[in-house]
Amino acid sequence: MERARLVLRSVAPFLVALPVLWFVQGSLASYTSFVAINIAVNVILAVSLNVVNGFTGQFSIGHAAFMAVGAYTAALVTTGLESLAIPGVPAAVSGQAVFLVALAVGMLAASVAGLVVGIPTLRLRGDYLAIVTLGFGEIIRVIIENTRVLGQATGISGLPACTNVVWAGMGVVLTVVMARRLLQSTQGRALLAIREDEVAAEAMGVDTVGWKVRAFVISAAFAGLAGALLVHKIQLVTPRMFTFVKSMEVVVMVVLGGMGSITGSIVAAAVLTIALETLQAADQYRMVIFSMLLIVLMLTRPSGLFGTREIWDVLPRWRRRRAPGEAP
Amino acid sequence: MRAVRAMALLAASLALAACQGKKAEGDAPAKSAAAPAADKILVGHVGSMTGSEATFGQSTDQGIKLAIEQWNAKGGVKGKPITLRTYDSQGKPEEAAVAATRLVVNDKVNLLLGEVASSRSLAMAPVADGNGTPMITPSSTNPRVTKDKDKVRPFVFRVCFIDPFQGTVMAKFARNDRKIEKVAILRDVGNDYSMGLADYFLAKFKELGGTVVDDQSYKAGDQDFKAQLTAIKNKNPQAVYVPGYYTDVALIARQARELGMKQPLLGGDGWDSAKLFEIGGKAIEGSFYSNHYSPDDPSPRIQEFVKAYKARFGVVPDGLAAQGYDAAMVGFDAMNRAADGSGAAIRDAIGATKDYPGVTGIITIDANHDAVKPAVVLEVKDGKSVFITTVAP
Amino acid sequence: MSGTGQPVLEARGVVMRFGGLTALSGFDLTLHSGELVGLIGPNGAGKTTAFNALTGVYAPTEGDVEVAGRRVNGMRPHQICELGVARTFQNVRLFKELSAFDNVRIACHAGSRSGFTSAWMLTPTHDAEERRIAARAEEFLSVMELSPRRDELARNLPYGEQRRLEIARALATGPKVLCLDEPAAGMNASEKVALLELIRRVRDQFQLAILVIEHDMRLVMGVSERMLVLDHGVTIAQGAPEAVRQDPKVIEAYLGDGKLRLRPPREAGTGVP
Amino acid sequence: MTEFLQHVVNGVSLGTIYALIALGYTMVYGVLKLINFAHGDVYMVAAFSGFYIATGLGVRDDPTVGKAVAVFLGSMVVAGALGWAIERFAYRPLRNRPRLATLITAIGVSFLLEYGFQLPSLQAQGRSLEEVLRGWGWTVPGWFDALVTALPSTFPPGPTPRFFPEPFTRVDWTVLGGVHISNYDVVSFLVAFAFMLGLQWIVYRTRFGMAMRAVSFDPRVAGLMGIPVNRVISTTFVLGSVLAAVAALLVAGSRPRIDPIMGLMPGLKAFVAAVFGGIGNVPGAMLGGLVLGLAEEMVAGYTVSSFRDGIAFAILILVLLVRPEGLLGRVTVEKV
């Protein structure tokens, strides 16, 4: 009985999310669902980067590279196995199964990349580590541009359109559940300890190097998931999707949401994605307004939307704090 | 804090004003309009209006605007005025796909135009196909844009060359007309257009018995190309093929001359801009490039376009503006001929385009949905492009 | 005094050099279970350096450090911590943005064996582990009389409580040896006495060996069985408190005029970098 | 041998660009510990101010020394003012906040300048700015009116690249039997070197430099000691921006293509160079720039040029793994 309860608790978010997403999927117009998928991808990216930048306090500005690794690997799997049909199963189902495998392989490949990047954390900190992650991003891009199998600058087109709101939504649920449970576990607290004080964490028995590398691996795996989901929506993967600018966009989302705040990352990713979409109406002024928005948001909420806290911690505090007339 | 508030206010009012300004201009219907009114024709354009390739996107957009204004002055297509809605792709494939979806599904455009880069057109093509909206790309040259694996994409067309054709044209010209034996290549490694041209050039040039002595690459936006040029210079080729955009080629030409290289440079239609001569100056003299048309072509069709464009936007049109103009023109011409306003009818009409007198050549759409038109080879002389020869497809 | 059996912590001829500066030379220490030893000396004498060498923050330039008979030179601090050496810091280093409870729970981490996967899947093992850790953390908080402050952020605690929280955190790692770096710094006399009482009680309750760095000689003398005096990185005296107090070298180096009072600090910058 | 020497000349010339920008980066970082992502865009704005001034003076047809001086001074003033404004309005309000908050406003400012300069000029839109603003219901203050009329009619420049006229005549020399070098290469290198020495002198030999170091060490304590922290930081920003202006004009003079995103890649590379040399260290920025330039040049010249950036970054990462504090950075041991 107790066991069944525990199992149920473990899978509950997925059980709840799946039917809801099916329902949402059916009711969304294709443009709205495209935007929703975009938001989902950005949420996965922001929350996963938060594991490194927010929880662990390291500074990675090469998240797009992990995305690229996951996206390309998954693309190779789906295009390679496209003709393969599992006998006795309808084509649609077998296609979904292949996609699931592709996502898993993409995450795995990305996590290997995360391991490679995580290792320099042995010796490097702060801005020096940032340069390594940035450099790694460039190296990945250069490798892709020089590899014929990966289509060089053109990339791989004609990918199956597997990603829909259900897949993307489940990706978000998986990522958020991962981050949340991580944060509430002793493993996650080890990461927080590293962020707060590396020397003290080490002295308290936290294997700081090991946990930093692990944080990179986890973060990379989910970035890979985001990449794989994105490219199977637009049915194309090219190196241009994974530039330095993309990495910076994710950093912006994390900082804007508040370092270490999961709900902050979610809200920031959604707000920024929707803002960019809405601002299409502003023509050439679009990015000018967007950048002003960025500056203003940061100036008014310097610790991010929710600081290191979650949305439910912050909402009542606002009310309490405003009362004594303290400047926000 | 006061500064912050002032900025917030400024940003908000900018946003508001931009939306209002749009409405005031009257070239876009209210945002919530589910379907275009039957008495109007709505054209969607996805272009990189901001970002590192904004110059190409904005040129194309202006070309399209000019085409629309000219048609509207004549009374529109079948008596209906045309309006344009442009969405920005920021140079990103994923944004191009979202923008295309929004235009096709929400705004229900009758015709989709865009993108410059093949990587972004490739992201838009499934959207056009999936929703049965005809799409014409002005300048995406990768064969896969109109052809997915072996299957021709039913709703996607182009009015430009494809990479194999243009690469081959220049290889033939270099080998047969100029009798060049040793050539070096300098390509933009991050640009699929440049990569495509270089690959086909290389194959054809070798096939014709020439040798490619060096194959170097650069990245768009680089400031310095001397490393590659020094290496090329040492191999002593008779010409250097640089199938990039004018933005980089102008600097490459300058730096080649600074290193004492006297060989002519060879290029493709990406060179087509007055800026090439302005920035390249004397360095670009004596180089050759393939193009759709010669801006010096005395034919009134071309001269009128150049004049009208200059009057409207204050600058000489570049190749991308001309292609944007042609893409729109071919589209409107087809709509005018189409049996009705449905996507399929317009699609069929575009596919049936034959000998359309565009600015960038006499355009015929073939079974692969590609434009068949002869290429011209131009030489740069006294800061102008001079017609050398025509190469038929 | 339990001076027999295997020492839990032993240092033999430890030398620490930073560039040309020798911060510690020929440092010997033997610590048995249940002992409370004071490490004293004027500012910059090398006390904290000795701590850092023992706990793995620095690898000793020469000499050996053994924990329960196992050589730990060159091991990383977390490995040494797992072997049973815990410490506090001279300038309190808590996890400031986390609650007191979390601070202690992190230290319980050393014994945790369940991995990431079980945390994500919320397996029963993980659950049990978390419960065990929480219970342990509560216990140490209550030992250090911090239970009411459980959910307070560490940075919001008053100074004295921060010091106590640091000890609770160190205890939570399950040490055999506890190294306290000036635990009573900045406290007034009555607070100091209370704290030392608490330390002694902790030692008895958990059967620990405790090494205390302290400025205030009188204070340490009251509680420690044995003392070690450092000056300029050299051990100038050790033994029972009374004997040390009478040692002329100590009086010369430390006490100056023979009264129990702190000499003005030496010129800054003679200690560790 | 000639080829190798040519590569060295090219590499040093490229490295000089990075070094010139990196010097400004490192100054600001040294004082504020802030990665000023907008530095590359100040460089861009400086290039465009130079362009507008040069166009106004007719430098292209008739370059004279007087005009060159005017172009340099004018664009240094504009860049300095911009640097001051950025610090005052985007960074100072966040001075005591998390360091990353400032990074994001820096990115915001960078975007604002890049995209702002990509807007088509009002002239091309056939409207004046005042009309636009009045259309939004704003009253235009007099000073704003004056400012707008003072702006060139082709402002903002839009995304199309512009030709930058040479501020002083280019001379190419052929030395050592076939190595090509120009006076711009020589002048740029000498200027960079002089700046390095000058900055080093300012930082270590002047009262202002002492104040800078104090602020760098701890702004709060420096303030308590009576150092005007805000003024020191402002001045540092102005100084860094002026350096960027000189770099921009020297680069644009010899590579005469300027566009609104011209600062992005050089800015990024300069940041890398500054970190590589040991960020906050003035000679380190110079050395880092030169090493990066030479590394890129040699990789492109002797291996596969399409791997240029990749291999250059790989070298960088390897060097950083061996020397985690950069080439000339001081190893800091955290006091425990």
Which terms summarize this structure?
heterotetramer; A: 328 residues; mainly alpha; two-stranded antiparallel sheet; 13 helices; 2 strands; 1% strand; disordered C terminus; C: 273 residues; alpha/beta; Rossmann fold; 2 domains; 6-stranded mixed beta sheet; 4-stranded antiparallel beta sheet; 10 helices; 38% helix; 22% strand; globular
N-to-C terminal Cα separation of chain C, in Å? 36 Å
Uncertain runs of chain A are: 319-328
Share of residues in helices of chain C: 25-40%
Strand-residue proportion of chain A? under 5%
User: Would you tell me the structural class of the helices and strands of chain C?
Assistant: alpha/beta
Number of helices of chain A: 13
The tally of domains of chain C stands at 2
Q: What global shape of chain C is seen?
A: globular
Topology, element by element:
The complex is a heterotetramer of chains A (328), B (393), C (273) and D (336).
Chain A lengths: L1 H26 L2 H26 L7 H18 L10 H28 L7 H20 L10 E2 L7 H19 L2 H11 L1 H6 L4 H27 L1 E2 L6 H14 L4 H17 L7 H15 L10 H12 L6
Antiparallel strand pairs in A: 1-2
Helix pairs in contact in A: 1-6, 2-6, 2-9, 2-10, 2-11, 3-4, 3-5, 3-9, 4-9, 6-9, 7-9, 10-11
Chain B lengths: L1 H24 L15 E7 L6 H20 L8 E7 L4 H14 L4 E3 L4 H14 L3 E3 L9 E2 L2 E2 L3 E3 L4 H15 L4 E7 L3 H16 L3 E8 L7 H10 L3 E3 L4 H13 L6 E3 L6 H7 L7 E4 L8 H14 L5 H19 L5 H9 L4 E3 L2 E5 L5 E2 L2 E7 L2 E8 L2
Helix pairs in contact in B: 2-11, 3-4, 5-6, 8-9, 11-12
Chain C lengths: L8 E10 L2 E11 L4 E5 L6 H9 L6 E6 L2 E2 L5 H7 L1 E3 L12 H8 L8 H6 L2 H20 L15 H14 L4 E5 L7 H18 L2 E5 L3 H7 L2 E6 L2 E6 L1 H6 L1 H8 L18
Parallel strand pairs in C: 3-8, 3-9, 6-7, 7-8
Antiparallel strand pairs in C: 1-2, 1-4, 4-5, 9-10
Task: Describe the structure in your own words.
The complex is a heterotetramer of chains A (328), B (393), C (273) and D (336). Chain A contains 13 helices and 2 strands, in the order αααααβααααβαααα. The C terminus of chain A is likely disordered. With 328 residues, chain A is mainly α. In chain A, helix 7 packs across helix 9. Chain A is globular, with a radius of gyration of 20 Å. Chain A has one domain. In chain B, the strands form 4 sheets. Chain B has a 7-stranded mixed beta sheet, with helices on both faces. A 5-stranded parallel beta sheet of chain B has the order 2-1-3-4-7, sandwiched between helices. In chain B, strand 16 and strand 17 form a beta hairpin. Chain B contains 12 helices and 17 strands. Chain B is α/β, with parallel strands linked by helices and 393 residues long. Chain C is an alpha/beta fold. Chain C has 2 domains: 182 residues, Rossmann fold (3-Layer(aba) Sandwich), CATH 3.40.50; 80 residues, no CATH class. In chain C, the strands form 2 sheets. In chain C, strands 6-7-8-3-9-10 form a 6-stranded mixed beta sheet, with helices on both faces. The radius of gyration of chain C is 19 Å and the shape is globular. The C terminus of chain C is likely disordered. In chain D, 69% of the residues lie in helices and 4% in strands. In chain D, strands 1-4 form a two-stranded antiparallel sheet. A two-stranded antiparallel ribbon of chain D has the order 2-3. In chain D, a hairpin with a 3-residue loop joins strand 2 and strand 3. At the B-D interface, helix 1, helix 2, strand 9, helix 7 and helix 8 of B face helix 1, helix 12 and helix 13 of D.
